[in-house]
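[Structure tokenization] protein backbone as discrete codes

[Encoding] learned vocabulary of local backbone shapes

[Begin record] amino acids and matching fold tokens:

___
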Amino acid sequence: MPVTQTPITRELFDEVILPIYAPAQFVPVKGQGSRVWDQQGKEYIDFAGGIAVTALGHCHPVLVETLQKQSEQLWHLSNIFTNEPALRLAKKLTDATFADRIFFANSGAEANEAAFKLARYYATNTISPYKTKIIAFHHAFHGRTFFTVTVGGQPKYSDGFGPKPADIVHVPFNDLDAVKAVIDDHTCAIVVEPIQGEGGVTPATEAFLSGLRQLCDQYQALLVFDEVQTGMGRTGKLFAYQHSEVVPDILTTAKALGGGFPVSAMLTREGIAKVMTPGSHGTTYGGNPLACSVAEASLDIINDSQLLAGVEQRHQWFIKALEEINNHYHIFTTIRGKGLLIGAQLAPEYAARLRDFIQAAAEHGLLLLSAGSDVLRFTPSLIIPEQDVQQGMAKLQQAIAQVIG
């Protein structure tokens, strides 16, 4: 008898997928550049970028060619062996940053998990076995493993799973006095996003980051930058720390690193890395040849002065369009961010309708994100054409008009 195939519809999600997401009612099936098409052939302009992942748009030809070529050579070995793509990528990352050593994983959460473990391992092995306190910030987001979700400053993501990892303290973001009040000789690390992404696209001030660096130096603690969302050109520099004089001890990156292929990395200096020994940490898929080959191609394209200058140019396109919309509708109280990580905070009278705006945008053919409870977030391709920005903003204006009447 012929096999009857189950229709692949949005309704199937509700039957077979763990109910931890609430995806849109349409199912995207194809992407090209900054545009996406669903099962019915409807076209959307993508201002979401897979949550800052598809930094070069969908199906960038160089990444496609790289993946196809590598897929015919070597897929997986395990970390009993090394491989050429991983070594090339690691060398290029160290050449482009402060770092000497790289650890590859598959997601931002795994990179952060490794970073937090390294910070504690370094402190307890080189300074004091009691030096385990981690200072983090309210509204931060660092991943969904139990350790990273506990370091993240949003209890709604960590509550309900039993006892949490201990010795983690949260204080207000951009409040240096609050950090001074809790830091002590037992502190092993301060963990910070240069721009809080999920927490509302809120940039750290230069004085705040500089103060964190000084406190870490004073108390022999490590400064960890979570650049999962801000890294790989998102802010107009390869990494956001490069906008300032503040250099972290450990940096994590993921999302855009693979341009859509799952891969992440933790970067650190030799003096910190040397405390680790074979078996002290690991991962099955980290350093996978497929992932590293695509990430290398992505890095080669993004780490280019012309492309990074183009990010700032596109920032201006978005800000200008959002300000024009705001001048007409008075819907935003603040438009903030850096490069192509932009947040538009809704005025109090519209804050409760955040999901309505995103839904209406989709109806008009625009993919948008939220950040926090009242912020529209824009993380498009770093090479999005001006025409797509203009057309997307026109769709956003239509959506706003529909929601507010």
Remarks:
- The chain is about 40% helix and 20% strand.
- The mean pLDDT is 97.
